Automatic annotation (TrEMBL):
Protein name stated in the entry: Uncharacterized protein
Length: 86
């Protein structure tokens, strides 16, 4: 009885090993495809991040320029006010 069980287990193990070997190439191809998709998504995400960082820097410069123009306008108004009073 024990020998029959061991033989059955051995046959089942061989069958499982054969199935695994047969499935492995397909699974590897599937994983490689998924990996390529993830790499493409990562590249797109990186490009978007770089673009947003550049836009952010441009906006910072626009804000700084606007603040400078505002300060110059305030100084000019203040100076005109002092000239009128003086």
């Amino acid at each position: 009885m024990a020998l029959k069980f061991l033989a059955q287990v051995s046959l089942e193990a061989e069958r499982a090993q054969k199935e695994t070997k047969e499935m492995l190439p397909g699974r590897m191809a599937e994983l490689e495809s998924t990996n390529m998709q993830l790499m493409a998504a990562l590249a797109e995400s990186y490009e978007a991040s770089v673009k947003l960082a550049q836009e952010n820097e441009e906006l910072k410069q626009t804000i700084a320029d606007s603040e400078t123009r505002t300060m110059l306008a305030i100084a000019e108004i203040y100076e005109m006010h002092n000239v009128k009073e003086g």
